[in-house]
């Protein structure tokens, strides 16, 4: 066990897998000698060699495409897309190729690739270093989509993603790299060292994809969330004084329907929180899913707390970010009904 | 700003240039603008020659068979008569297969087919020049490769019929084959998107210190996709052991190769900007195609990196069974194609060598037709399109390695509701 | 007025706009001399000239990118993407550029482009000629997404889209090109000539984006749908004998919330039908939207009838397609509760 | 299959090639592998010369200023002393601006900045060679263009500060300017995605029979994106009146240009595959940059189509204020760059002409610093980063031409809840 921030935990996951499996290799923009703009691959080239951890051309489509070809050969490439905003040039490769290869070839070929990418705002990155594109991936049959909220989960989930024989989009909320951010941007940064999930085993372990985690049990209502918003929601629940159950989905697809529906069936109320824009965000699917499964238990409309349906602005970042105030408001409003 | 610049003074208005082919329906076919150099004149560099010494190659046209069907010049691969006969036979089998499949489509036994007529030398000769375990990332027009690798016709027809024995479980449009054992990578309807997979596969082979190489094919039209650029970039940077082929058959459905830039430069010359050798080859010349591919394969296998090959040919048939080329190109354009027909040219060569005859030719065609007929019959015994036998479960399999719960639920829904 | 099928109506819309506005131009793969693989631009090059209607390289990203540049100059390009499945290579240009240009430049530049593309299945096109990607566009702030279901609407909406100063994704259900397909693939094709909405004015008219159309008023429940599924739902409603109100959204974004919520408030029940895959399809947003606005009127869970969460298979096309049987089943199930 | 092929016999294993730069931290800078030809030796073709006569150009290096600062050879644009002084002054203003902004970033007055140090000749000389109403689609490192076009510094600083007077309403990261009136197209954080917009804009200009041309800039690293390929393809096919510039400053953040293919071929040679002229230019030579751009602009304006220009230079500063180059490249690499510094070289030239002096130079630097200081002061009077004044409505404006209802509702939500 070591105290790790999320960057170190991710680094450790890749290190462990590079060590265990000669078919694992890591590439992406600036990930080689330099170790990545967020330092997630620092030291890995020096340790595992230039053939196994290397820089790629600035061509996200080419990165994913070559990874698919390597996957078809039998390797397990782990690629980094420098910001989730820049996955889009690779979107066709992810949708038309990575996610469809197994089905269309009836299992002759498949693409066991992992696409890591930092997502989300709160670092003053402006429109194109802040987006959370997870929802569009969840619409694509054949892709898995994961987003951890702690160093412990990050390592265990990344190892499971690398070992998975299907393509996995692994989104890392960059605002959580250094600490469990609760949305109060005007307060001092909390380091992971002071958080239990900042204690991370040094060796191999995995967290199965598709299992949500109840991070705060409660009876009054259910909060469905993931990524940075897990910590924002926890803070908001404390502030609200409402005994809400907070569920960290961790994996958006496959989704842990049982944990979600069991909780809402108990509480009868539900708030969904994510940083991405509202319309057709993943909250839409979650809301409809809960409604389909728990209609007769619901005592109040399901509320969404999300980023606005605008680009992520630079100066007004904190007006865009769905902070604790908005979560508290939603909690109160579902309790009122 | 540029008061001193001469053109600041009232220049003439600009005008948008939109290229057109030399002839359209109603016109006579016109290939007078094409420069076809004689066979045998292009030098053949050593495979480890420096790229800087090979920069003329993309502007030349590698040809081995001359007008009389003689093999001439340094690119003559000097294949044995046995291999040549095998090549001719394989092209004839390919052609017989194509013809028959189009007839089956007309009778409604399948919904769709794509012929390779006039381009058979490409799939066949290139397969001959590769090892059987080299992985091929084709487009939908290199079926000759499968026949060269002795892949069973029945298997392909079952895919075309989407019947019980279709290994792809009816999931794919006809001809979008996948045959891993034949080194034939899974096709998709999207054009171009597998081209960079070949580079990734080749990088993986190098990474694993394997000896297998990859080969990929893309159309003239499709070379405009970003995937083409990714493939060249990654192949160049990492010296990937891959052959990147552009099949320039002059047309992309109704769109002339000029709209992909073909009037401005050869497709082979795209290699130059990446420091790769670019070979421009008479695609209807079995020997030239073989020789160029063999050269590129040797480079790749000697770890000298990738080669771009432009195969200069003509799409003699419709784009697909959904297409009607009389709507956009002149009648008889295929016959006017100055590089002739690959089958006729190899036949002429073999006859000139005293290794073939009209009689043998006719006999092989008859044999090939019989082979196809028998294969169709066998395939039909496993069902044809819409012949029932719906395996509902297979609709939900292989989306993931193991079927997730929500797909089980949807399968139940389908079973109970319809 | 002429009797037109949907192809002719779309052709007429472009013809009218090419005639009225010298800044309108049309390009895309095979759209020039040949007139498009679905013939939607037939005759337009001959009439308006090669500079105004022309073929483009097979580079969907390049087509959209150059259209954005033309839009920034002041033109109104109308581009065709040959199949909606092939929009994906242009996804980054649509999301990062077309939809963001106005916002990030604070109105200095914008992209008044229209991207037409045939979508949907039912023509035996297999996995990559059948998809319905609308939902991912509705998540993108700055894009409008439209899908007509009749020749009359197609022409009026396309003219409105071309005149719109924001980028519009204009999806054409190709199964409706020749007739109002009701989902019974084993019955003879109905031509548009026998349908009232096959009567189309020859001249200019527009249908405002963002207005749904109640294509069948009813009291028992509300059916929200668009594209091919409008006709499937109408058929299913007749078969079910349930007095359902069928709403053709026509425009997914902007969405006509008033018409939707007014209807569900009246009926208290709701079925949503689309051909696209279920998870994170546009039905998710619709369901959650209805739930947020009409929670207290809802008497039964909102049901989705959709394509499965698999690629669109070739042979089993009609097992994938959400036909009338499935709609009838959903109608009955919402009425039971 | 290829029993006759020599290499079928147990070839040596392949190996994956991953290129590395010549020197890393701890090493001495090493540019000994670069071949820098003397100034003045590259011929200057007529702008309407056939492309086939210009295929050597991409492999040469157009240089006008020699080691002594004399202007030599056929590319000498023969600018007046007045224009040269103006150019030098503009480069110095650019440099003074960059320096000051980085200092402001360190003090927290802005979150981010990107310098163009060592690359000032590019933005400035190229702006000089274009008309003011030609539209420029830059990357984030051609700010010199704005100073050459006399765009007010205050305006830029207000954007950098995201203050009340920021015309972009605080929406953009610092330096992602948009200045339509200055012919400066809106930037975005995504690299490369505006490169093909320039081609579309130029096609539109030709379509409208306008006389304005477009110019676009992309980095060596970014040339790997599909957008680069789209731009070249469409520019080639439609003869778009556009200049496509690749700024090869050797690095893409920490990634050497080898990873974009720079060790295999020059970026200028990418032009060849599209039948475009490709000029490779000493990017630190103001006169060479001006001359090449003027040549390309003349071609475009004469409706002769596009030109690709590789500007060979060195990124002397960090990638951005978020970057620390000591982590990945040797100390002193910028000083070792064999093509020197663009400001020093133009200064030397002017002094050699007797048109400049150390004193004047120092005075212009002081003036430029003063100009920047005054501009900062004025901009600060309109607020700095996080100085409050939140215009909540502006968060929802300009998503669409008119604000739709759901955004009004969200604005209300923000106003009432926070
Ligand atoms: C991404 C994508 N865009 C468009 C299409 C439609 N399409 C199918 S084949 C084709 C023409 C391809 O022409 P070319 O590359 O020259 O190959 P050829 O058919 O001549 O062999 C087009 C445009 C497609 N299948 N995929
Ligand atoms: C699509 C996209 N991918 C990746 C990035 C991250 N990124 C920003 S700048 C940069 C390096 C660009 O290098 P180069 O093109 O050489 O330009 P330079 O910075 O040297 O001027 C990268 C990778 C991005 N902004 N956009
Ligand atoms: Mg072709
Ligand atoms: Mg660079």
Task: Characterise this structure.
The complex is a heterotetramer, with two copies of chain A (337 residues) and two copies of chain B (418 residues). Chain A has twelve helices and 14 strands. Chain A has 337 residues and is α/β, with parallel strands linked by helices. Chain A has two domains: 199 residues, 3-Layer(aba) Sandwich (Rossmann fold); 124 residues, 3-Layer(aba) Sandwich (Rossmann fold). In chain A, the strands form three sheets. Chain A has a seven-stranded mixed β-sheet with strand order 3-2-4-5-7-6-12, sandwiched between helices. Chain A is globular. The mean pLDDT of chain A is 97. With 418 residues, chain B is of the alpha/beta class. Chain B folds into two domains: 341 residues, 3-Layer(aba) Sandwich (Rossmann fold), CATH 3.40.50.970; 28 residues, no CATH class. In chain B, 35% of the residues lie in helices and 7% in strands. Chain B has a five-stranded parallel β-sheet with strand order 1-2-3-7-6, with helices on both faces. A two-stranded antiparallel ribbon of chain B has the order 4-5. The longest helix of chain B has 26 residues. The radius of gyration of chain B is 23 Å and the shape is globular. The model of chain B has no long low-confidence stretch (mean pLDDT 96). Chains B and D meet through helix 2, helix 5, helix 6 and helix 7 of B and helix 2, helix 5, helix 6 and helix 7 of D. Bound molecules: thiamine diphosphate (2 copies) and magnesium ion (2 copies).
């Amino acid at each position: 066990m070591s105290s790790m921030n999320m960057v170190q935990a991710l680094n450790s996951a890749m290190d462990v897998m590079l060590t265990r499996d000669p078919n694992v290799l890591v590439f992406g923009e600036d990930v080689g000698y330099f170790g990545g703009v967020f330092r997630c691959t620092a030291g890995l080239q020096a340790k595992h060699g230039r053939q196994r951890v290397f820089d790629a051309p600035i061509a996200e489509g080419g990165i994913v495409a070559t990874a698919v070809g390597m996957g078809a050969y039998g390797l397990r490439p782990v690629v980094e897309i420098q910001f989730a905003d820049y996955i889009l040039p690779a979107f066709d490769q992810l949708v038309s190729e990575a996610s469809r290869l197994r089905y269309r070839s009836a299992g002759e070929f498949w693409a066991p690739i992992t696409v890591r990418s930092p997502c989300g705002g709160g670092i003053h990155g402006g429109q194109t270093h802040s987006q959370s594109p997870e929802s569009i991936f969840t619409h694509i049959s054949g892709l898995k989509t994961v987003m951890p909220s702690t160093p412990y989960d990050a390592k265990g989930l990344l190892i499971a993603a690398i070992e998975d024989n299907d393509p996995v989009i692994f989104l890392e909320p960059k605002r959580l790299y250094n600490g469990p951010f609760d949305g109060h941007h005007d307060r001092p940064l909390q380091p992971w060292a002071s958080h239990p999930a900042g204690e991370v085993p040094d060796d191999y372990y995995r967290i199965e994809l598709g299992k949500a985690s109840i991070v705060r049990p409660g009876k009054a209502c259910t909060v469905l969330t993931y990524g940075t918003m897990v910590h924002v929601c926890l803070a908001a629940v404390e502030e609200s004084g409402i005994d809400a159950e907070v569920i960290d989905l961790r994996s958006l697809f496959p989704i842990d329907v049982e944990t979600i529906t069991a909780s809402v069936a108990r509480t009868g109320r539900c708030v969904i929180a994510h940083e991405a824009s509202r319309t057709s965000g993943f909250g839409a699917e979650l809301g409809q899913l809960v409604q389909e499964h728990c209609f007769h238990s619901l005592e109040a409309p399901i509320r969404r707390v999300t980023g606005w349906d605008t680009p992520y602005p630079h100066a007004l970042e904190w007006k865009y970010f769905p902070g604790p105030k908005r979560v508290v408001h939603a909690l109160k409003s579902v309790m009122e009904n | 700003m540029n008061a001193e610049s001469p053109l600041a003074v009232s220049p003439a208005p600009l005008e948008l240039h939109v290229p057109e082919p030399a002839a359209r329906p109603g016109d006579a076919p016109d290939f007078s603008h094409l420069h076809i150099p004689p066979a045998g004149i292009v030098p053949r560099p050593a495979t480890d020659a420096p790229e800087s010494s090979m920069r003329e190659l993309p502007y030349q046209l590698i040809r081995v068979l001359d007008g009389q069907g003689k093999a001439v010049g340094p690119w003559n691969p000097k294949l044995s008569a046995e291999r040549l006969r095998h090549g001719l036979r394989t092209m004839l089998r390919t052609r017989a297969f194509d013809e028959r499949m189009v007839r089956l489509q007309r009778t409604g036994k399948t919904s769709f087919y794509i012929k390779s007529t006039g381009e058979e030398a490409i799939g066949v000769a290139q397969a001959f020049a590769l090892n059987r375990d080299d992985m091929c990332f084709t487009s939908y027009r290199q079926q000759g490769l499968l026949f060269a690798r002795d892949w069973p016709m029945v298997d392909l027809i079952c895919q075309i019929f989407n019947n019980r024995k279709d290994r792809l479980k009816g999931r794919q449009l006809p001809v979008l084959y996948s045959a891993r054992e034949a080194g034939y990578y899974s096709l998709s309807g999207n054009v171009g998107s597998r081209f960079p997979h070949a580079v990734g596969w080749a990088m993986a082979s190098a990474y694993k210190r394997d000896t297998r190489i990859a080969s990929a094919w893309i159309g003239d039209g499709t070379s405009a996709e970003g995937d083409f650029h990714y493939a060249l970039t990654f192949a160049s940077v990492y010296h990937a052991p891959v052959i990147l082929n552009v099949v320039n058959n002059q047309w992309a459905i109704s769109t002339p190769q000029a709209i992909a830039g073909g009037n401005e430069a050869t497709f082979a010359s795209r290699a130059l900007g990446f420091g790769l050798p670019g070979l421009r080859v008479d695609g209807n010349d079995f020997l030239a195609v073989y020789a160029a591919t063999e050269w590129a394969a040797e480079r790749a296998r000697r770890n000298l990196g990738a080669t771009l090959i432009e195969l200069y040919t003509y799409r003699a048939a419709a784009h697909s069974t959904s297409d009607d080329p009389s709507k956009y190109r002149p009648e008889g354009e295929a016959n006017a194609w100055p590089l002739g027909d690959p089958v006729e040219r190899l036949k002429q060569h073999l006859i000139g060598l005293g290794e073939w005859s009209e009689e043998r030719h006719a006999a092989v065609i008859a044999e090939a037709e019989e082979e196809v007929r028998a294969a169709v019959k066998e395939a039909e015994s496993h069902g044809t399109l819409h012949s029932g036998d719906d395996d509902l479960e297979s609709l939900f399999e292989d989306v993931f390695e193991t079927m997730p719960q929500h797909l089980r639920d949807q399968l139940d829904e389908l079973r109970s509701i319809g």
